[in-house]
Amino acid sequence: MYNISKEKVRVHMKRLGIATQKELAEKMGISKNQLSMLLSPRFNPIKSNALKLCETLGVDLEDIIDNSEQLAFDLGDTDTVNDSEQEDTFNVFDYEGHDFVEVRGITPDKQYTVVELFAGAGGLALGLEMAGFHTLGLVEVDKYACQTLRKNRPNWNVIEKDIIDVAEQGIKNFIDNCPDEIDLLSGGYPCQAFSYAGKKLGLNDARGTLFYYYAKILEELRPKMFLAENVKGLVNHDNGRTLATMLSVFMDIGYKVQWKVLNAVDYDVAQKRERIFIIGIRNDLVEKYNISYSFPQPYGYVLTLRDVLQNVPPSEGAKYPEEKRKVLELVPPGGYWRDLPEEIAKQYMGKSYYSGGGRTGMARRLSWDEPCLTLTCSPAQKQTERCHPEETRPFTVREYARIQSFPDEWVFDCSMNNAYKQIGNAVPVNMAKAVGLSIVNVLNKINREGDV
């Protein structure tokens, strides 16, 4: 089975001037529902419809799928790059960072500039602001996230545009008095597989992904440094080839790169949340000033929910259905489904009860004396429940925000469900600040050497 990438299809729709899925379905000669099923990861694509889509878009099937390796298995394509053919590529672990710097106490020599892509509700941008960065522009396509950004920072230049349009028109056209050189490009693009055209992993292999447009804007701006954030799963995604392609592209553009999986709990955040950070320094600066980057040293202490959920401002919050609430009332603080009576656990878990493994996220009640588990976009989802330590309910919006280290005055200007989504998708603010200070450490060295 293979999945067709909506993002890749969207890119080709734009290229052909096809505005909506309804219009695309009409051109293909199928119904809109058939097209929706074709683009849904929950359904095995009907081959005839997939071929109609390729014909309409003028592409090959491998150009619009998420996983080219699986396609090779399904179609018997022996020409697709496989693991043995990529032995001439580098090992991503050669570029994993191992150096750390104590960032508490670092202050910027001056106000450094940053442009951010995929800004969301502003967790990364706010953390970078706290570290000493001045935001020149933030690109975000979601209108509700843009509302949140404008509500909290009316002076920020929020560019409510599709990243494809911004990259094609040139981001400098959206920034008033854009300096010739900025200090940092930041952002967290979605994790998507690439179509591999050959052994060399280059920018063209990334076409049709949102990473491609991040890279194109990096190529346009050529900032002193860049920061790219993503989910931990990127390290092993598509057998490591996704990360390998990204690193290769960044190096081709002209940057010395390092990556590291960091845990938010190490940086003043009451949450176990692992994310990969890729940091790059422009090659000419590395050579001229003999500088290197070090990741932020863990702070050496761990915050618990008790530390951060005192005197939380009142706010709305999701509710459990009555049947679920009765089950969760039986779970002690720090417990999960295995703490339920066996018959109730079997009924609540269904088939999952017999699948083995931990499944510690189901019927999970958190403890006051531990950090939170990773917050998701939906606080009441069965697979990743995060029940309040004492009360049988999900966390409220403001509790969610506290756990992600947003200040209480940061307002989420949207519906409750959208607020959970914005907070759940965000980079924890204090984690972003720590990474920002580690970047300031390098920019200070460049600034001081340049003044000599």
From TrEMBL:
Look up the coiled coil feature and give its residue ranges.
none
| Catalytic activity entry | a 2'-deoxycytidine in DNA + S-adenosyl-L-methionine = a 5-methyl-2'-deoxycytidine in DNA + S-adenosyl-L-homocysteine + H(+)
- A Pfam match is DNA_methylase
Q: Where is the HTH cro/C1-type domain?
A: 20-64
Q: Which CDD domains match?
A: Cyt_C5_DNA_methylase, HTH_XRE
Enzyme Commission code(s) on record: 2.1.1.37
Q: Where are the catalytic residues?
A: C191
Is the keyword Plastid assigned to this protein?
Answer: no
Q: Return the protein name.
A: Cytosine-specific methyltransferase
A molecular function (GO) held by this record is: DNA (cytosine-5-)-methyltransferase activity
Which NCBIfam families does the UniProt entry name for this protein?
Answer: dcm
Family statement: Belongs to the class I-like SAM-binding methyltransferase superfamily. C5-methyltransferase family.
Superkingdom as given in the UniProt entry: Bacteria
* GO BP annotations, alphabetical order: DNA restriction-modification system; methylation; negative regulation of gene expression via chromosomal CpG island methylation
Q: What's in the keyword line of the UniProt record?
A: Methyltransferase, Restriction system, S-adenosyl-L-methionine, Transferase
Family matches, as InterPro entries: C5-Methyltransferase, C5_DNA_meth_AS, C5_MeTfrase, C5_meth_CS, Cro/C1-type_HTH, Lambda_DNA-bd_dom_sf, SAM-dependent_MTases_sf
